[in-house]
Design a protein that fits this description.
Length: 107
């Protein structure tokens, strides 16, 4: 592989010590869920904030369903799998967004 192609390939990746909301939608959802759970705690008891979090999570899920999913299998040359990217499914994201809130709202 020529050196310029290798540099171009390495520049395509940004590996750091922490997840970011721009690169990982699940990470942002987890943060919003944490805010909702804290708002529902007996010590805080702030239902308006919890409802606002559920509204924001609903907006994210609507946007998620309206996007076109990227491919998860990349082949080069044809029929030779070179890369598999395990994207989160809608069901997985929906569970992450609402399951904990649903569980703690019952208590």
């Amino acid at each position: 592989m020529p050196a310029d192609r290798a540099l171009h390939l390495v520049a395509a990746f940004d590996i750091g010590p922490a997840r970011t909301m721009q690169q990982d939608v699940e990470f942002g959802i987890i943060q919003i869920v944490d805010i909702a759970l804290r708002a529902m705690s007996p010590a805080v008891n702030d239902p308006s904030t919890a409802i606002s979090c559920v509204d924001q999570l609903s907006r994210i899920m609507i946007l998620w369903t309206s996007r076109i999913s990227p491919p998860s299998h990349y082949y080069v040359p044809p029929h030779v799998l070179r890369l598999f990217v395990p994207w989160i499914s809608f069901d997985g994201l929906l569970d992450t967004a609402f399951e904990q809130i649903r569980h703690y709202a019952v208590c």
